[in-house]
Fold these 2 entries.
Entry 1:
Amino acid sequence: MSYPYQITSYEAYKEAYKQSIENPEQFWGGVAENFTWKKKWDKVLEWNFTEPKIEWFKGAKLNITENCLDRHIEAHGNAPAIIWEPNAPDEKNRLLTYKKLLEKVCQFGQVLKNNGVKKGDRVCIYMGMVPELAVATLACARIGAIHSVIFGGFSAQSIADRLYDAQAEFIVTCDGAFRGAKDIPLKNVIDDALIGNHTIKKVIVCTRTRTPISMLKGRDVWYEDEMKHVEEQGITFIEAEPMDAEDPLFILYTSGSTGKPKGVVHACGGYMVYTNYTFINVFQYQPSQVHFCTADIGWITGHSYILYGPLSAGATSLIFEGVPTYPNAGRFWDIVDKYKVNILYTAPTAIRSLMGFGLGPLQGKDLSSLKVLGTVGEPINEEAWHWYDEYVGKKQCPIVDTWWQTETGGILISNLAGITPAKPSWATLPLPGVQMVLVDEKGNEVLDEEGSDTVGGNLCIKFPWPSILRTTYGDHERCRTNYFATYPNLYFTGDGALRSKEGFYRITGRVDDVLNVSGHRIGTAEVENAINMHSGVVESAVVGYPHDIKGQGIYAYVVFGNTHGDETLTRKDILQTVTRIIGPIAKPDKIQFVSGLPKTRSGKIMRRILRKIAEGETENLGDTSTLLDPGVVDEIKRGKI
Ligand code: PRX
C-alpha cells in the first residue's frame, strides 16, 4: 500500500496544514479518496457547533472492515495483521494473517447474526486482551452492530449502568482474563451486572482462563461452539454491511465532571479516515512495520491505534495480554526484542513505573528495531521523556507526545515522528485540519503576547475534524452542554494549555473535575458517589494530587458517621465499596477522615482548598473568608496524610 497523504517534511506539514485550513473539504476529500467506499459522498462536510450537528462524507457508504481487512488481502493477505503475546511468556503466542483475521471476523459476524444481532444493535464487549476481542469488535463493525467495549477493570455496577444506558442486547465476554499474576473472573462479573437487567438477550462466552463459570440456559452460549457451527456450515466470508458514513460505529463510555459516564459516539466514515491519517503521519508508519501499542482495547487508544488505525494501514499490530511488570520489569523489552517491534506507543505512567526498576531489565535486550516511540494519556514529565529517549530509543528514535481524547477519536496535537520538531513535555503542533484556540475564563481568545514566550488558557477547537464525537448516546443535549456550551461555537476540551511563540502546545492538565490516574480518566464526582454508597459515610470530597508514578493520585476527604471504629478497617471497607461500584482503578490512594468539609455559606464545597492541602500546601490557601466554618480547614491541615 502506498500512502500519498503521508507528510514527509516539515515544509510539507506546513503546506498540508495551510491547505487543510484554507480548504478543509478539498483537503479531507482528497485524503478520503484513498479508501474503499461502496458509494462516494455527496458533500464532504456540513456542520454547526450550536446544536451540534457534524456530518462528514454525507451520503457516502462504506464498511470500515473492508478498509481494515478486505482491501489488503490481494497484496498481502499472508502478512501478519495481529500478533498476540500472552500474559505468561511461556505460553504459545498467536499470529493472525490478514486472510485469517478476515475469515474469523466474517465467521464471528455470522455468529452474531445467528444469535439475533442486527444492524444498529448495541453489543457490549467485556473481554481480556485476547485476539477474540479484536475479532468480536471488528465483527460488530462488519455487520453494522454498534460495539461498546468496556475495559476489564470495571465493576459489575459500572457495566450494569453502561448496559442500561446503551440499551445493549448482546454481550461478548470471556470466562476470565489473565493480567499479570491476577486472574479476573469476567463472566462472574457479567452475571452480577445482569441481575435485574431486562435488555440482554444473549451472552457469548469465549474460553480463556477455564475459571469455573455458570452458563444460563437460553441466554449464555460458548464462543467456540458457535464458531464451530459456522465453520461446519463452510462459511468463511460474509459481505460487509453497507454503512452510511454518519452511522455510529461504536460507543465508548468515558468520565466527565458529573457522576455518570457518557457514551461517546463515533461515526463510521470520519473516524476511519482520521485514525488512518493520524496513524500514518504521526508514527510515520512504513509498510510491513510492527506496531506495539500497549493500551487496552477497552480505551480509545486501543480502538484507534491497536485496531482501526494500524489495520486500515495494513500494519502488523501487536496485542499484549499482560502488564509491563509481569513476570518482571523487562517484559516490554523482551517483546520488542522478540518481535522486532518498530513503533512503541505507551503511557507516561508505564515509563515512570519502569524507570523505577533501573536499567537492569533493559540489559541484554536488543531494541535496535525501534524506529519511533510514542506517549499518550497524560503529560509526560521531562525526566521520563529523557529516560525513554536515552535508554529505550538510544537517542535514535523520535518521541511523539500525542495529545487527544476519547471524544476526539484520534490524535489532534503531536509532533510527526522525525518530521516536525519534538520538544520534551510539549505535544507541539496541531495535526492538519485541527484548529486549536486558547481562551480565557470569559471565552475571549488568548492571542500571542509581544515580549512573552508563552501564553496560557483553556484549550478549545474552532472547526470540526473528521473523528470528532457526534453525540453522547441517547442524550444529545448532554453532548451539547458538556462540550459545546461552555464557549459559544467552540469545542471545549476540558484541558488547560500553554502555547509558545512557535505555536507549540503544552498540555497542563484538566481544568474540570476530571482526574487522570495512570492515564485513566476518572471523574471526582463518580468517586464521591461511590464512597458515599458506604453506609457509614456522611459525605465526601475527592481531589487529585501529584503522584510520582500515576501522574495523579486520588485523595478522598471523608466525613464518617461513626468514628469509634477502627480507621484502618473503615478505610478498607471504603476501598471495597469503590471497587464494587466503579472498579479497582478508582480506589483512592489516600483517605482522610474529617469532621466536616470546607463549605461556603451556600453549601458549596471549596475544592480549591482541599486540592491545595492534598498537594501539600499549607500556607497559601487563598481566600477562606467566605467559608461557613474556617476552623475546619485547620483541622484538615493537621490531619493530612
Ligand atoms: O487531559 C488530557 C489527557 O487525557 C485526557 C483524555 O483522556 P481520555 O479520553 O481517557 O483519552 C486518553 C487517550 C487519548 C485529555 O483531556 N491527555 C491525553 N493525552 C495527553 C494528555 N495530557 C497531556 N499530554 C498528552 N499527550
Entry 2:
Amino acid sequence: MCQEKKEKSRLSFSILSLFPGYFDGPFRESMLKRAQESGLIEISLIDIRSYSEDRHNRVDDRPFGGGPGMVMKAEPVAKAIRDVKEKGSKVIYLSPQGKPLTAKLCRSFSEENHLILLSGHYEGIDERVIESEVDETVSIGDYVLTSGCSAAIVFVDAVSRFVPGVVGDEESVIQDSFEGIGLLDHPHYTQPRNFEGRQVPEVLLSGDHAKIEAWRRARAEENTKMRRPELLKKRRD
Ligand code: ADE
C-alpha cells in the first residue's frame, strides 16, 4: 500500500472490504507507517466490489428466510479471496461471532507469512463462503461494529506489534499488559513533577531501581485486581 519494496515483507496483510478508503488514515501514521516503509509488514487493500459480475456491481442481497438487512453474496467474496490467496495464506473473517482476539492469538498470527482479512458488512456474509474459504473467525470484542473495517485495523495493529522490529523496544512488547506477567500495566508519569497540584509518586524520583520495580509491580497488581480480577484468576489457574 504505502511502499515500494524490493524484498518480501516478513508479514503481509491483504484486507478485503467494500470500503478500502476507510483504511487511508490509520496505516499512514506512526509505527505502522514505519513498519511498512522498512518492509517489516505489507498491507494491501482489496475492493470486493471489483469482483462482482453483477451488471450493477451488486455485492449484497436480501437474506433467504426473511429478516432485516442485507447479506454479502458468496460469489464476489470467494473470487476476491481466491485471487489473493497464495500457498500458506491464512484467511481470517472478522465478525462478532468469532473467537476473541487475545495477545496469545496475536502472537501466533504474527508468525504467519500472509493473512487475508475479510471485513464483513451489513448483516454478514453468506455462510457458504465462510465454510469454503475461511480458516478462522475472529472477534475483537463483545459488541457489534458497523463493519469489520475497524476490527481489521485493530487486528493489523495488535498483530504487527509482535513482528520483531515493529516496536522499537522489544521489551515493551513483553512488558505490556496481558503478555509476559499477565497483569495490566502500571501507571506512567513524565514532566512536570507537579501537574495542577498532583505530584509524581516520590518513589519514581528516588533512583532506587529495585524499589521502583516493586512499586510498579504492586500498582500493576492493584490495577488488575480492581479492573480485571478475572485476569488474576487466570494467572493462578
Ligand atoms: N464486525 C462487527 N463487529 C465486530 C467485532 N466485534 N469483531 C470483529 N468484527 C466485527
